[in-house]
Design brief:
Elements lengths: L28 E2 L11 H10 L12 H11 L6 E4 L2 H13 L5 E5 L4 H9 L3 E5 L2 E3 L2 E3 L2 H6 L5 E7 L11 H9 L6 E5 L15 H6 L3 E6 L12 E4 L2 H10 L7 H12 L1 H24 L3 E2 L6 E5 L8 H10 L2 E2 L1 E3 L4 E8 L3 H16 L1
Parallel strand pairs: 1-13, 3-4, 3-7, 7-8, 8-9
Antiparallel strand pairs: 2-10, 5-6, 9-10, 11-12, 12-15, 14-15
Helix pairs in contact: 1-9, 2-9, 3-4, 3-8, 10-12
Bound molecules: pyridoxal-5'-phosphate.
């Protein structure tokens, strides 16, 4: 018998990240990966130097330095934090590795972050994909439909709040209702990668739920608002039993000292944090309003990107827009693989990038 991977693995469509360049275009602006237009904090960059002497030594294995910094900042128990040097992506996988058995069911929305399906299939478990609601403000997760999809085989529910690529989020009450409807042997994974951008008062990133319930985990990242996508560092908060399971299977040195020092410095630079929040608060509504003036549908977003809808037919489709934008130096994200073939996702960029992108979309729609 030839060597074969576990069932499900060869059904996985590999994750394709946002493009960073366009052949033949000298200067292309990347608005395809929800990175921060402000980049990392100067304090984070300074911490890189501090990390230099550590490169030849194994780091302390539990990321104590970073866990303590996060715990102090958010007023949490450091023992219930696990850091990851592979971004929050790696934590989403570790949770699946720890809890999914073959043929278990994993529930998530029709336009969920692609890693949920990959982590599910990598463990020979079954994705249960739930339709989302198309409302007049955007495409939203449907809590009732999610709960209706739960069966005795369900082991996990993944949910990004805010969701990528739709940009919509659930409020505290909706999250509580979702959790209340789940059996206690189902793990609710709240992926709060974009939590820092949400201003709504009725939003709860998942910390309170993860602190209270043994079947809730919240994951976070330094990749988005903190401008450290290249550093690859994320963390999670969960009950001691879930942490114990993950700590048994994670890599023994899964965060470098460099990652810990840089992320800790980023966390404490509140000036940079607020500058990034303010930048997004200024440009997200502007982009949304300006693109709407072209006649294109743009959903209300609670994150650092917008979902733009294009006509399914004719010469102004999402694929036409993508090609036009790329030719003119703006790279957006096609999201057909998220079940949204008529949409493109645009990250909030610098002022220059935002103005260029909007004026190109005006030209595209007017042509
Ligand atoms: C919803 C969501 N979760 C998780 C991630 C992964 O982030 P990280 O860089 O921490 O792996 C992303 C990144 O695009 C995301 O959009």
């Amino acid at each position: 018998m030839p060597l074969e991977p576990k069932p499900g693995i060869l059904d996985i469509s590999p994750y394709v990240g946002g493009r960073a360049s366009v052949p033949g275009v000298a200067r292309a602006h990347k608005l395809s990966s929800n990175e921060s237009p402000l980049g990392p904090s100067p304090a984070a960059l300074a911490a890189l130097d501090e990390a230099r002497p550590s490169l030849s030594l194994y780091p302390e294995g539990s990321a104590r330095l970073l866990r303590e910094a996060i715990a102090e900042f958010f007023n949490l128990d450091p023992a219930r934090i696990i850091a990851s040097g592979g971004g929050s992506d790696a934590l989403l996988h570790l949770l699946a590795d720890a809890y999914l058995r073959p043929d278990d069911e994993v529930v998530f929305g029709a336009h969920a972050f692609l890693v949920y399906k990959i982590a599910t299939q990598a463990n020979s478990a079954r994705p249960v994909i739930v339709p989302e609601k198309d409302t007049n403000t955007g495409i939203r997760l449907d809590v009732d439909a999610m709960l209706a999809a739960v069966t005795p085989r369900t082991r996990m529910v993944y949910l990004a709040n805010p969701n990528n690529p739709t940009g919509t989020s659930l409020n505290r009450e909706e999250m509580a209702r979702l959790h209340a409807g789940l059996p206690e042997d189902v793990l609710l994974v709240i992926d709060a990668a974009y939590a820092e951008y949400v201003g709504a008062k009725d939003y709860e990133a998942g910390l309170e739920m993860a602190a209270q319930f043994p079947n809730v985990v919240m994951t976070r990242t330094f990749s988005k608002l903190y401008g450290l996508a290249g550093l690859r560092i994320g963390w999670m908060y969960a009950c001691p039993a879930v942490c114990d399971a993950i700590n048994r299977i994670r890599g023994p040195f899964n965060t470098s000292l460099m990652q810990q020092l840089v992320a800790s410095a980023a966390l404490t630079d509140r000036e940079h944090f607020w500058a990034a929040v303010k930048h997004n608060d200024r440009w997200l509504p502007w982009i949304t309003a300006e693109i709407r003036k072209t006649g294109l549908r743009v959903d209300d977003s609670t994150a650092n990107f917008v979902l733009i809808h294009f006509p399914p037919q004719g010469d102004k489709t999402a694929a036409d827009a993508d090609a036009f934008m790329c030719r003119n130096g703006i790279i957006l994200r096609p999201v057909a693989n998220y079940g949204l073939p008529n949409c493109l996702r645009m990250t909030v960029g610098t002022e220059e990038q935002n103005r260029l992108a909007v004026s190109l979309l005006q030209q595209f729609t007017a042509a």
